[in-house]
Amino acid sequence: MPEPITEQAERVLSLWQGSWVAAFAVGILVWGLIIWSVIFHRKRSEQLPPQVRYNMPIEALYTILPIVVISVLFYFTARDQAYLLETDEPADVHVEVVAFQWAWQFNYLDDTLDNGGEVQFSEVGTPDPAGTADPSTQPTLVLPEGAVVHFDLRATDVIHSFWIPEFAFKMDVIPGRDNAFQVQLQEGTTGEYVGRCAELCGADHTRMLFNVEVLSQEDYDAWAAEQAALAEQETAELEEAAAQAEAASAGEAAEGTEAAEEEAEATDEGDEAEVEDTEGDTGSADSEENDES
Questions:
Q1: What torsion do the CA atoms of 141, 146, 148, 149 make, to the nearest 10 degrees?
Q2: What is the dihedral of CA 112, 117, 119, 124, to 10 degrees?
Q3: pTM
């Protein structure tokens, strides 16, 4: 098992280890009974052993003991599952995870999606054109140590699965269904990790990788401020470009309208001149007829 970096991962590891302890205990009991039967009840003569129809104490033990084992395992599993899916604690960081073929996008929100959180800035990966996993094209999920992080999961095409091995936990990302979970990152976990898709999502499933970087709170705050400033600058540039495009479009429309008006005026002037010429020709014809008379 990888070294856990969240409190939830510690709980998963404890459940995993406890399950193995219980499995070994049951295995040792069964193996011991088998060995005991082989040694002490092996064939010693041709005499047929006493035949019995049943043994009530042993059969009761065979029924009750598995029920007890399963009940104990079920209790700890249900308890830990409820703990892993709790999302009521106020989070320090809110991340919307968007999975698509064949990369990831991480939108950093100011609140959860259920509460109408808005995107502050984003990290998005670019699928490698060569069809291979390339760390330079993969997005990086940046998180602060010691923080509570809320993840909202969303898919745009097929079912994916968001998995960071050091979380010891994964959750499906399903189109049309928003999933969510929270983790409490532990102190002293700064470093770089690798995340991946744990669901066979298509031909290039192996390219669904992303980087994870855990920073100290100070470094994370500086990084988040820088990303927010870059996002604001990009938004301002896009708005300015849109305004310029709109102004240019309005200018072209005005020029087109002016040209149409000029053309209409020229047409009107031409029609007036034609009318004047027609009247002049008519007057000349009348004069000629009077002269002939």
A1: 0
A2: 30
A3: 0.74
